[in-house]
Amino acid sequence: MPQLNFYWEKDEKRNKEVAEMKNILFLCKYNRFRSKVAEDYFNRINKNPKLKAKSAGIIEGSPIDLTQKKISKKLGIELKGKPKGVSTKLLKWQDIIVIVANDVPPALFKDNKKYGKKLIVWKIPDAKEDNESEIKRIVNSIKINVNNLVKGLK
Description:
Layout: H1 2-10, H2 12-20, E1 22-28, H3 34-45, E2 51-57, H4 66-74, H5 88-93, E3 96-100, E4 118-122, H6 132-153
Parallel strand pairs: 1-2, 1-3, 3-4
Helix pairs in contact: 3-6, 4-6
């Protein structure tokens, strides 16, 4: 282990690069819609290679609804991959948790600040699977929040 410390001490430029990197974890209840929209949109508009985003649900959800997927695609959002639950590995990886939901208690992640990490909460309701106008409204709301997040991280 001392060799690793020695390596990092010698390579101050690399230390600074690692310190500047930000890993963002978008969370919602099931990782079927809201957090996936945020992850996809963030990764599409973010031009900073030091910012990375992933998404998960506090509960691993069932497959993505086809109506939500189709409407999101019309709005430039690709909902892909199976829903996944949050893991210890993801919690260690992240620097910032963004709760993209009104049904995920922020208290679950109250210790994030204690570990020098950040917690952001966007109280966005889940969409009814067959309500096109509601799905569009939620996607657009998430896009606005993501745009503001990206601007704030520059």
